[in-house]
Amino acid sequence: MNGSNAAESPLSPEDLQRFCDFLYRQTGMSYGEAKRYFIERRIIDRMAVVGTASFAAYMTLLRVGGPETEQLINSFTVNETYFYREDRQLVCLSRALLPEVIARKAPGDLVRIWSVPCATGEEPYSIAIWLLENWPLVDAYNIEIVGSDIDTRVLADAHVGDYGVRALARLPADVADRYFTPAHDSVRQIIQDLRESVKFTYVNLVDRAAMAAQGCFDIIFCRNVLIYFDEASRLDASKNLYDALNPKGFICLGHTESMTRISSRFTVRRFDDAVVYQRPEG
Ligand SMILES: C[S@@+](CC[C@H](N)C(=O)[O-])C[C@H]1O[C@@H](n2cnc3c(N)ncnc32)[C@H](O)[C@@H]1O
Fold first, then answer.
1. Which ligand 1 atom sits closest to the C-alpha of 204?
2. N or C: which end of the chain has fewer CB within 10 A?
3. Which domain covers residue 168, as residue numbers?
4. Is the CB of 202 under 6 A from ligand 1?
5. Among candidate residues 54, 76, 98, the one where a domain is terminated
6. Does any domain span residue 83?
7. How far apart are CA 117 and CA 228, in angstroms?
């Protein structure tokens, strides 16, 4: 940044590029000149919080890693989500995907479902609620639901499980009443049984080792994140997701996202309610 007053001194094009390269290497998220205002606002806010006087000093702090890098990443993520988002995929989950998955298993076996990224938890909790409400075999299998994200702040919120009116708007009222406490100041908390049924973990989709450490899943929901990546990080994420699937496992993307534009390794499955991608057998 030029000059002494950070708030009035925008980043030079070189500074902006240096910062975007750093963020990209850390997260896969691809920002550039077009988002200059968004980027500068966040950097200025973070510099004010940590009390660094110059952009160069702030970059040095980021390069050291540690808590400020985590806070910076948290401030750049877009965490928009809500219960029963794109619910045709949930219909597909109980009608088509799970029947295929359990055909290869015995009653009591582990079925692993991964919501990555999960943001503030609405997606993995929606999966849990949907299965309790709509899948008669839910008690016959050992269902493990994991929610993961790169943003430590939203993971903490997901643990707490407090939700406002907007997040809950698509849930039928009787369903909300069964799984949430009564509203207090317009906030309802998801019941303890459900909070304990979803495991939340920190994961970076473009970090190969961190992804591998989560083990393999039968079904992955990876929705509305690849839109923030460029082609190279989408490809990296798709490789990591492929390796995280059991053979014949399924992956659901957001409705504006397409795996066929990223990788040819998955089989495209067109079900009545959704298009889903499948890891082949071999
Ligand atoms: C728009 S939300 C999507 C949440 C949910 N899947 C949905 O569709 O409602 C995008 C999430 O992606 C997360 N994210 C961004 N880059 C990531 C990365 N490299 N690894 C894991 N999560 C990431 C953000 O923190 C944010 O919570």
1. 20
2. C
3. 88-278
4. no
5. 76
6. no
7. 12
Ligand 1 pocket check for 73: Cβ under 6 Å: no
Express each pLDDT in 71-119 by its tens digit. Answer: 999 999 999 999 999 999 999 999 999 999 999 999 999 999 999 999 9
Q: What is the 3-state secondary structure (H, E, C) of 116-150?
A: CCCCCCHHHHHHHHHHHHHCCCCCCCEEEEEEEEC
118 closest CA partner among 89, 73, 75, 77: 77
Instruction: Compute the distance from residue 253 Cα to the ligand 1 centre, in Å.
Output: 12
Specify the residue for token string 């991608």.
277
Residue 82 lies in a domain: no
Candidates 114, 93, 100; CA nearest to 245 is 114
Mean pLDDT, the chain, whole residue set:
95
- What's the domain count of the chain? 2
Strand segments, DSSP code E, in 168-257 are 188-189, 198-202, 217-222, 245-253
Closest CA to 190 of 127, 270, 236: 127
